């Protein structure tokens, strides 16, 4: 069984800036041992002929061709706006910045 000592867990907790009690350090050392054993078992699997993959399903980027089509003019887009300024939507100030 793989294991980490209580001191190694304390060092890791210090690097992560996590405060832990003595009981937590001892318990986590045991849990890390189980995790390391599980990783070791996975590493023992023969992967000869297995293609590396990041997803179980093939991924395709489905994108349409970027085509320019007729759109609204600035006046048409702003026609329903409650307030406008210099061909832009005028919205209430929300960040408290000076105008």
What is the element layout, followed by pairings?
Layout: H1 6-15, H2 22-43, H3 74-78, E1 84-85, E2 88-89
Antiparallel strand pairs: 1-2
**Overall pLDDT confidence:** 88
- How many strands? 2
CATH structural architecture of the domain at 6-43: Orthogonal Bundle
The major sheet is characterized as: 2 strands, antiparallel
N-C termini distance: 66 Å
Share of helical residues = 25-40%
Query: How many helices?
Result: 3
Provide the CATH top-level class of the domain at 6-43: Mainly Alpha
The class by helix and strand makeup works out as: mainly alpha
Calculate Rg over CA atoms: 30 Å
Range of strand content: under 5%
Strand arrangement across the biggest beta sheet: 1-2
Q: From N to C, what is the helix and strand string?
A: HHHEE
Instruction: Give the CATH topology of the domain at 6-43.
Output: Histone, subunit A
Overall geometry comes to elongated
Oligomeric state as shown = single chain
Low-confidence stretches: none
Task: Outline the structure in words.
With about 100 residues, the protein is mostly helical. It has a domain at about 5-45: Histone, subunit A, CATH 1.10.20. About 35% of the residues lie in helices and about 5% in strands. It has helices at about 5-15, 20-45, 75-80, and strands spanning about 85, 90. Strands 1-2 form a two-stranded antiparallel sheet. Strand 1 (about 85) and strand 2 (about 90) form a beta hairpin. The mean pLDDT is about 90.
């Amino acid at each position: 069984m793989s294991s980490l000592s209580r001191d190694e867990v304390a060092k890791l907790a210090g690097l992560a800036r996590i405060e832990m009690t003595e009981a937590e350090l001892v318990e986590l050392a045991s849990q890390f041992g189980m995790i390391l054993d599980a990783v070791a078992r996975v590493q023992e699997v023969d992967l000869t002929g297995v293609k590396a993959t990041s997803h179980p399903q093939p991924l395709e980027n489905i994108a349409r061709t970027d085509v320019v089509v007729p759109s609204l003019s600035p006046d048409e887009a702003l026609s329903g706006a409650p307030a406008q300024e210099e061909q832009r939507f005028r919205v209430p100030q929300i960040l408290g910045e000076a105008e």
